[in-house]
Design a protein that fits this description.
The structure holds 2 protein chains of 2 kinds. Chain A is mostly helical. Chain A contains 15 helices and 4 strands. By secondary structure, chain B is mainly α. Chain B has helices at residues 10-26, 43-66, 74-88, 94-118, 123-142, 152-159, 167-184, 188-197, 199-204, 209-235, 247-257, 269-288, 295-311, 315-325; strands spanning 34-36, 39-41, 147-148, 161-162, 165-166, 237-238. Residues 1-6 of chain B have low confidence and may be disordered. The chains are: A mainly alpha, B mainly alpha. At the A-B interface, helix 6, helix 12 and helix 14 of A face helix 5, helix 11 and helix 13 of B. Chain B: InterPro entries: ABC_transp_permease (IPR001851).
Amino acid sequence: MIRSLARLMPVLATTAVFLAGFLVCSLVYPNFASMRVVMNLMTDNAFLGIVAVGMTFVIISGGIDLSVGSVIGFTTVFLALAIERWGVPPLLAFVLILVICAGFGACMGAVIQYFELPAFIVTLAGMFLARGVSFLLSTESIPINAELYAHLSDHAIRFGSGARLTVPAIIMLAVVIGGMVLLHLTRFGANVYALGGSRAATALMGINVPRTTVLIYTLSSVLAGLSGIVFSLYTSSGYSLSAVGVELDAIAAVVIGGTLLSGGYGFVFGSFVGVLIQGLIQTYISFDGSLSSWWAKIATGLLLFAFIAFQQITLHLARRPARRSGRPSPPPPAAIAQGVVRP
Amino acid sequence: MGLRLPRVGTAQIGALALILAANWVVSPQFFDIRLQDGRLFGSLIDVLNRGAPVALLSLGMVLVIAMRGIDLSVGAVMAISGAIAASLADSHSLPVVLAAALGAGLLCGLWNGFLVAVLGIQPIVATLILMVAGRGIAQLITEGRIVTFTSPDLAFLGGGSVLGVPTPIVLALAMLALTLAVVRGTALGLMIEASGGNPRASALAGIGTKLITLAVYVWSGLCAALAGIVAAADILGADANNAGLWLELDAILAVVIGGTSLFGGRFSIILAVVGALIIQAMNTGILLSGLPPETNLVVKAVVVLAVLLAQSPRLGTHLAGLGVLLGLRKA
């Protein structure tokens, strides 16, 4: 029991930070604690939340995906062109773009796996490629006037006092729940953790490492594509420069959510809370009105540092007693993951 | 794998020559250099001049990557040092301005180095912090505005020339010479190769791995700060939002093109600079050829992939497999 609680420590800490932050905001601005603010928080950060779920899988497996922001940008441009210029029905365009993204992610995963190259640099090339292709498609912002878009942005589950659970927010919540099920309850999820713990051991256990790696990057790109769909719903347009730098926001959310960047340990729910914390900072700044948006960057940087320092300290503490008493009991998964990277 | 001497950079120099030749084909006056008002002008000089900031960044980045690290914060450090230089330029003398801007880069480097060497945080995360927060700090310094200055002293560093050669080129060459002298002129280069190849074994062998790690990040911070000063001096102002944006990726790309292994332990300083020139020659070539500048990113992506595949330890195996598949060779 205590061990499983200790395992959940980082997520609990993140959630506590979010709740404390929300409390502080509510004390400063009495209007803050309303369903409306919470719902807007979800809607405004829906695309980031979806991407962060995919990033969680990638990072737990010990990789990284820098291409997601560009994939979102590409998706919005592709959708705008397909729907407005080429006359493709929106739903068919959604399916098409998800298939394209899946192929893109699978290619990156295959290059990482079969050529034994660092994920960081392969997805960097993917980032250039996706952004470059969307530049080639169009450099201007294209409005999307399809009926489905107007319909979807009107559609929402309404609560009293103007609070609306919009379609983007519903999609994000569904992705978060789906991600939790996939990561924690399926064999694929267990394989992802195993990969992040130790590639060699995973292969020796008979797990199909190439298949898992390719699937992980496919998943991340598909979710980035879905996020691009949500982003285009949210802005009703396609623009090749949209979502620049989102990959870093997503990585920051995942790290703040308690996932180890060295892999092997983390939770989808933590990333979700990490996204909410970043959204909270931005909402606070917009409530304040006099603070400039650059404080959001500094605050995110400080939070990143605080959580990474927190991780290092817990890892340090987790390793110590096991070493001293020489018990054969297995250390927490976090320590294993760290031990693999720095033995 | 073990330690290998850096391959003689025939591939890189060949690629650079090829790109320059291609530029010459699309623009016949590419190699024309003329002297005007005591300064050299021409497309080739332009490639060198525009490539100087990335070349400066790659001087720091190559050492960081050789230590199995990565420095994502160099773009943000450029923004910080540029912001400081531009805000102080009109009220202080040049030495004070330079000291403040370079000092900021030094502090940024120390921070990164501290996180990596002392706290043991993975480099990609440790430098991500400053990458995210650094641009915010730069905006704090400029108060969110684009700060402009008129000081001719600082402007000289971006737009002036020494004996006809534009100052950014001179600065980049001087830093290259200094880096080479310190790293290859002493045992430091060997120690970096050893620590990058196997940090634990090197530490056991008595190499101050932590101190060297700290030092390479400080050097990277300093180089980034200088690049930031040059960039600010070039446009007579500092734009915290856009100064050095995405240049960390160009710097990493330059180092990778230069044949430095991302797995640590093998690096070449000169070839990293050649890599930076290759990137800039491609940019200039695309502009000269009249292709839309948007093609730039796609071309870059293809080049990265090609270089990566060439570096891949598994390329030979897969090619052999392909040969078997096509019936060219017996299994």
